[in-house]
Amino acid sequence: MKESRVKSEQRERQVPAGGSEYAIEINNLTFTYPGGFTALKEINLKVKRNEFVGIIGQNGAGKSTLLKNITGLLKPTKGDVIVVGVNTKDSTVADLATRVGFVLQNPDRQLFAPTVEEEVSFGPKNLKLPADEIKQRVQEALGYVGLLEQKDAFPPALSKGDRAKVVIASVLAMRPEVIILDEPTTGQDFRGCHQIMGIASRFHEAGHTVLVVTHHMALVTEYTQRTIVLCNGTVLMDGETREVFSHPEMLRQTFIVPPQITQAGTDLKEALMAARRGWTPRTVLTVKELGEDIVAAMKP
Ligand SMILES: Nc1ncnc2c1ncn2[C@@H]1O[C@H](COP(=O)(O)OP(=O)(O)OP(=O)(O)O)[C@@H](O)[C@H]1O
Ligand SMILES: [Mg+2]
Q1: Atom 30 of ligand 1, residue of closest alpha carbon
Q2: N or C: which end of the chain has fewer CB within 10 A?
Q3: What is the separation of C-alpha 47 from the centre of its chain, rounded to a whole number of angstroms?
Q4: For residues 37 and 3, what is the distance between their CA atoms, to the nearest angstrom?
Q5: pLDDT digits over 153-193, tens only?
Q6: In the CATH hierarchy, which fold is given to the domain comprising 2-249?
Q7: Residues 141-158 pLDDT 10s
């Protein structure tokens, strides 16, 4: 708890003078697809600058539809979405791309250039930036994701993990305030998952806002501070990640089960209570935390 207070104080300091404290404000957002299906119903959410948020929920809950409304790919049927002070209704996707970067659920669909370098330079070129600035941004973005040596490679020939990193680099080259990743870890191996979440984490530590949708609950508990749970187009829960994962009965409504380590922590807590031993009433989020709690419980 102490750590999260320190982090929130750091966040307060990073709010630019005169700027809104919110990166994203969503007011009464309802979204209906042209066929008539209403995928989001009366959503109200505020995300402060420099938050790291996980968005979870069953298949079809409305996660991708919500992200597309934030990035301006879809416009609200009712209500407003304000991204870094700009209403998406008054802005084009291209304008919003300098504020909010979006890595699609299937990043391969975002790859089309013959080399990694050209792929990453596409966005900055569209901004009509001077050549030396484009070069600098591309170098910086490729360095950020660890792909400098692959700059001449043909993107589709790279591994799945590296393909996702190319797309992340092309988003970072736009220098957005907010980055949104829709299931970036799907189909990635263990190393790929942690490399991608590590990139998102460093971006967050540098003062940016990160939203990640994933079905990997252990990644949500390890990396995010806040979790938003969607269910049938509505917000079922929204709070500190530890608090959200201490309500497995609520999560079950949207077919989510907490990570096994969290479940093991709950079992340990119950066993210690039954044995009338000391116990730590926190919900365990990581293997490290469970280890700490076991050591604490073993103390006489
Ligand atoms: N283009 C579309 N036209 C009509 N309905 C759609 C369209 N795209 C999505 N939907 C419907 O909207 C609902 C929400 O879809 P969405 O893709 O936002 O869910 P999701 O939470 O991202 O799911 P997943 O975990 O499978 O990616 C689903 O019922 C889906 O069938
Ligand atoms: Mg989706």
Answers
A1: 60
A2: C
A3: 12
A4: 42
A5: 999 999 999 999 999 999 999 999 999 999 999 889 999 99
A6: Rossmann fold (3.40.50)
A7: 999 999 999 999 999 999
